[in-house]
């Protein structure tokens, strides 16, 4: 893929929109205590995790802080969020994590005025199996929003989310979630959200009710099993479409008691049409996501690991800034491809909302052969979501009045960004 991208001239220019927000997903710990079957980091053929440090050094942490400070100072960002990711961040001893957060905060405090420092927020994505008092103290100290990964009740979760000995993770994860929720109730933590990777054979309504009622998650996302056109399975797409239809109906019947990110995004994009990058001279980027590995290397999208054995870019957090990334041939190509509609989508009534999958999916799900020019592999499944969302928009009931107000606004509101 690398050679193809190097020969490609982007069709448009990228620029940062006014009030751009920044999200830095920092792989502070590259190893994991689980061995989930669907994991794009360890089990889909990419070995990048084998050649980077197991955890980020203090120097890399300071470089990440400098990256964020430079962007806040240069662009007056509306917000800058640092998401501590992995692997599993809690594999790092709590005292070692404390050293890294102290170094990050010291550098940010040194370089930023109070008005900009107040725009910095922290999140963490965890499997919740290693939650301890020491870790809760750290999460509380830095006011870290938590995203927990859980795929449903034990019989469902433990089919795919197992440890390296083949044992299920549900009991430990649920115990960790309960401890985190207790800390939220005590006012120590700001919030706990969830991520669930869809099992195409599961019942979406049952899963929605389990996460929202039994686990008590008030916000969560439903993630699509990662596929490209090279690994496309129509049975998986059909199962995911059925699952999403069932979950959407349960969410509506529940009067939107929980925030479900994929459904909220569908409602949002149906109300706001997008522009095709191929039809405009400039594309404005309003929310920038940057993935930083433990060695300080940068990439635009972590699920691209399945589409290439090589690093996506050679950029590093010590020497590159957002404007550099927008001019980087590989980085810009990925961002523009994600905003360019596929030829095969022409004539689709949902095109200006779905945008060939950009509205709900990820650019890697358009990968075929050497590039990202096809529609999303989840086209049929997304239709299920958009049809349900469109029906809700047009029913004229009071239910949508609740949904349409401010909590639809920001796609980065929920804790966690990926599996």
From TrEMBL:
Residues 28-185 form the Radical SAM core domain. InterPro entries: Aldolase_TIM (IPR013785), rSAM (IPR007197), rSAM_sf (IPR058240), Sulphatase_maturase_rSAM (IPR023867). Coiled coil: none annotated. Its cofactor is [4Fe-4S] cluster. Keywords: Iron, Iron-sulfur, Metal-binding, S-adenosyl-L-methionine. It comes from the Bacteria. This is Radical SAM core domain-containing protein. It comes from Brevundimonas albigilva.
């Amino acid at each position: 893929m690398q050679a193809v991208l190097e020969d490609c001239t982007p069709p448009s220019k990228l620029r940062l929109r006014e009030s751009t927000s920044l999200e830095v997903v920092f792989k502070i710990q590259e190893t994991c205590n689980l061995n989930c079957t669907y994991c794009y980091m360890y089990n889909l053929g990419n070995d990048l995790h084998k050649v980077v440090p197991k955890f980020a050094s203090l120097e890399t942490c300071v470089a990440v802080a400098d990256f964020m400070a430079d962007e806040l100072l240069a662009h007056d960002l509306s917000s800058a969020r640092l998401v501590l990711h992995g692997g599993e961040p809690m594999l790092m001893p709590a005292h070692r994590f404390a050293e890294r957060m102290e170094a990050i905060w010291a550098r940010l405090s040194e370089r930023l005025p109070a008005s900009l420092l107040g725009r910095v927020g922290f999140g963490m994505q965890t499997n919740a199996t290693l939650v301890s008092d020491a870790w809760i103290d750290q999460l509380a100290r830095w006011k870290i929003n938590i995203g927990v990964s859980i795929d449903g009740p034990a019989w469902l979760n433990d089919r795919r989310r197992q440890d390296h000995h083949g044992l299920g993770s549900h009991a430990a994860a649920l115990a960790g979630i309960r401890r985190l929720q207790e800390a939220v109730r005590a006012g120590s933590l700001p919030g706990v959200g969830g991520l669930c990777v869809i099992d195409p054979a599961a019942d979406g309504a049952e899963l929605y009710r389990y996460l929202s009622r039994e686990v008590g998650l008030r916000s969560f996302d439903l993630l699509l099993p990662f596929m490209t056109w090279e690994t496309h399975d129509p049975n998986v797409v059909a199962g995911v479409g059925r699952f999403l239809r069932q979950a959407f109906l349960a969410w509506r019947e529940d009067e939107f008691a929980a925030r479900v990110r994929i459904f909220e995004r569908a409602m949002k994009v149906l109300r706001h049409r997008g522009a095709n990058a191929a039809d405009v001279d400039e594309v404005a980027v309003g929310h920038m996501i940057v993935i930083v590995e433990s060695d300080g290397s940068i990439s635009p999208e972590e699920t691209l690991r399945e589409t290439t054995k090589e690093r996506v870019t050679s950029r590093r957090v010590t020497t590159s800034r957002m404007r550099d990334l927008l001019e980087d041939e590989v980085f810009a190509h990925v961002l523009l491809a994600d905003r360019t509609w596929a030829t095969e989508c022409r004539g689709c009534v949902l095109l200006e909302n779905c945008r060939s999958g950009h509205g709900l999916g990820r650019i890697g799900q358009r990968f075929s052969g050497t590039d990202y020019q096809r529609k999303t592999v989840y086209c049929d499944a997304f239709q299920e979501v958009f049809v349900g969302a469109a029906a809700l928009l047009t029913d004229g009931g009071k239910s949508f009045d609740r949904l349409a107000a401010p909590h639809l606004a920001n796609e980065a509101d929920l804790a966690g960004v990926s599996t």
